[in-house]
Design goal:
Layout: H1 24-35, H2 53-57, E1 62-64, H3 69-81, E2 99-105, E3 108-114, H4 137-142, H5 147-163, H6 173-189, H7 197-204, H8 212-231, E4 240-244, E5 250-254, E6 269-274, H9 279-288, E7 295-301, E8 304-307, H10 312-318, H11 326-329, E9 335-346, E10 349-362
Parallel strand pairs: 1-2, 6-10
Antiparallel strand pairs: 2-3, 3-4, 4-5, 7-8, 7-9, 9-10
Helix pairs in contact: 5-6, 5-7, 6-7
Amino acid sequence: MDRIEVSNLNRQFLFRLQDVGKPKAEVAAMRVMERVSGVNIVPHFCRIEDKNIEFYGDFNIIALGLDSIEARSYINSVACSFLEYDSDDKPCEETIKPMVDGGTEGFKGHARVILPGITPCFECTIWLFPPQVKFPLCTLAETPRTAAHCIEYAHLIKWNEVHGGKSFDADDPEHMQWVYSEALKRAELFGISGVTYSLTQGVVKNIIPAIASTNAIISAACALEALKIATGFSKSLSNYLTYNGAEGLHTKVTEFWKDNDCLVCGPGVLIEVDSTTSLQKFIDLLREHPTLPISKPSMVHRGKNLYMQAPPILEEMTRSNLQLPLFDLMGRIPKDVIHVTGTVTLNDRKTSALRKLRIVFKGNVDGVADMDMAGGA
């Protein structure tokens, strides 16, 4: 959902000076279609969370060029939600949605192939990403020493003082401009130089300046892996390539292993509930689940909306389901999978998440004896 900025122009060949301010997706699609005859690209200028799950289900391969852990985590969970397992907990090949992911950070970069259920998904290797740098609030409030301190003061402290409960949107130019202006005032007060609008964006959004050569190398690797998957002409990368051009040139491929207990790409979180449990009671149980604390959940079963938190019209349409037994809403099937979209806390930040739940009903289930299975809520 980004718009083109002047700082974007030096590291790619799709945008022009006259494109500044226009949506990146729309301009990029137009320029590629101009250069490559016969290709059809449909741009979408919106948040990735705005698209429903069925939208992503139409694709054979998902290629990621995202710039945050939260965005990667969300798309990873969406792709893994299509994955189904057989009775032996083996992934069904026809339900695997391949992903190719690439990312750069200065002179460093990575390209990886994710085959949900076979190779590790993004959550399986979340530990590969170092924790984000955090500044002590006392330093920001009392003894700022750098331009970054002034920016974070305006972002984390001053914004809440002035705007109360209004959430800060890093993708809103007016919000970013406000933080930049306040950071400048703070820097002048303490005699600190170096506060610029681009630095403000970098600090607030944790952006490291991009280098064209690194982007070219990683994007080429991603394109090659997508071509391999689409055509089958060669074996796919196994499964994580790293590139380091900071000192000389170093490229390495590492094969990481899937976490069989992964909450995202695994068979699903097993939850055992009574057949008389209402949907509302089930939602309450999810909030208290020891390994699955998810708030404001929306639930889908086989493409049918059981309950939707938003938009308001869908919430109103599905509200009556809250008082009905989950067993009835799922077609009185003794065990099945539902997909839950909600909010989880990741690195002290609330972010969207999609989880797969394996529901097993106990109690008076037609033709099925009570099941004694572990791991339920």
